[in-house]
Every structure is written in C-alpha cells, then in structure tokens.
Amino acid sequence: MIPKTLDYFEKIYLHRSLNKASVDLGISQPALSKSLKALEQEVGAPLFIRRSWGLEPTKFGQAFRAHSLAISKQYQSLERDVHALLNAQLGSVQIGANLGATTSLIPESILALAAIRPGIRISLLEGLYEDLVGGVISGSLDMAVTTATSLELPTVLVSEPLFEDPFVIAMAKSHPLSQFVLDGNGDALQDYPWVLPPDQGILRPRVVELFARLDARAPVPRVETVSFAALLELMCTGHYLTMQPLSVLQSRLASPHLTWIDDPALTIARTVTCIRHRNRELSPAADEFHDVLKNTAQKTRAGTSR
C-alpha cells in the first residue's frame, strides 16, 4: 500500500542502480527513470548523482529518504488498520514503553481494553527514553509511556502526565538490608552489588544525585540491564540491590519476592507520562487505548501508597 513513488525511490536508493531496481520492481528501466525524473522535478532538487559505478544519493536524496521512511511506516500502519477493519477487527495500536510501564500500567491497560474491544491488536516495544521519543516522531509508535525527564521535549511532541511513581531502593525480602534504616549510614548500601540500567538512560544521573545528597558514593553497578526478567532472577538470590518504580514492586510479578526501603531520603521522584505527536491524530484504535490508559493510570495513582 506504500505509494509507488516512494517504493520506486527506496529500491533505487538501496540498489544504487536503475537497472537493478527496475528488475526488483518488475518494471522497465525507462519507466523507472521517468518516475525518478518526475519526483526530482516535484521535489525541486536532484536526488541522485550518476557515477561510473551507479547512482549516489545527494544530500537532498538523503533528506528525502529519512522522510520517505517515516511516511512509509505511516502507510504500513494504515494498511494494518484497514486490514483489521475488513476482517471485523478494530484496528491496531503501536505502543512504546519503558520498564516501569511494561511491568504494571501497560499490561493492566491491555487487559482493560481487551474486555471492551477484544479485536484491537497491540504491538508493544520496550526501550529507553530516546528510542521511544524517536519512534513517536517517526510515526512507528502511536504513543510512548515513559518517565518524564528534564530534557526538552521536541516541539512536535506533547507530554501528558499520568501518575507519580517514585523510584525506590529494592531488594529481595530475604536481603540483609530488608529492614534497613538510613540513620546517616548511606555507605552501608555500598556493601552489596547493584543492578542498574545502562549509563545512557535517564535513571543513572538521578542515582548519583541521590547519593550525593547523602554524602555517600554512588553505587557502581555490577550488572547493567533493562531486562526485568533478568533483574528479578538476580534479585531473588537475596544479594543484589536495585532502584525500581514503586508500581513495579507492587505488581503481581515482583510483590511476592521483593521489598523496598520506605524512606523519603532514599526515594527519587518520578512522573510517568504519555508522549504523543502534537500534529498527528490518533487512529480510532489508538484513541481507544489512550482513554483506557488514562483510566488505568488514575486507578494506579490510588494504589501506589503502601
């Protein structure tokens, strides 16, 4: 369903050859050459330079491809929705989320949506903040549920606060520090290995700030991961410490195994937000999920107190 012009351009870009691209597309080379000339006239700039070895994309061609890929993803999403409607379904939703959302908020929202709209198909991508923002901008994601940051959000996006979900220091219920009281002894938290997300994420600087306020050294993680399955296995050994959103620790997966230090001085404030494109309307299916997400977040706000 991708427009022929974009499909033709992409094949030329990948093959760097009109002949190879025409064979791949199953059309004649003169017809493909004519299509390229018409596209360049419409764009108002040359998209390729002819070299002895083939076609080299110009800076205009490079820029055009970036937008072409985003448009193609939108058409693919449209095709999925049309297919779903034709098959008596109700469309599809592409969601991005970070760890805290995928462990509690998103699954609960999916279950709530399934109860009223069982035909909607949901695609869920878990990732770091920068990747999720990029997905919403490109159109590969309808929305992203993630932690609010101090970083300036691109002007094409809008952020909607959902609920407060602080990071707390977590451990196995059998951990020696399960009854830890700070009492000015922040260095005691250094006596055990830590599991934290990668350094390029948004949490690590906040952890450094937290320990700086305690006049203590920030922990150097023994393990870096965003995998909750791996983290839970490690934590259940009773040896590791980590920082986790409170809602995660109260989830059905974590609550039988983990506990946390209930001390405001060892807590990092965190707001969960929904990021959407400012100038792009949500599909009916995505709009339905967005409504369910807000209702689920409202219930979560009432349940994050211990």
TrEMBL record:
Chain ranges passing through the membrane: none
Transcription as UniProt keyword: yes
Matches recorded under PROSITE patterns: HTH_LYSR
Span of the signal peptide: none
Keywords: DNA-binding, Transcription, Transcription regulation
Domain of life: Bacteria
Matches recorded under Gene3D superfamilies: 3.40.190.290, Winged helix-like DNA-binding domain superfamily/Winged helix DNA-binding domain (1.10.10.10)
All residue ranges annotated as the HTH lysR-type domain in the record: 1-58
InterPro entries per record: HTH-type_LysR_regulators, LysR_HTH_N, LysR_subst-bd, WH-like_DNA-bd_sf, WH_DNA-bd_sf
Similarity section: Belongs to the LysR transcriptional regulatory family.
The protein's name: LysR family transcriptional regulator of abg operon
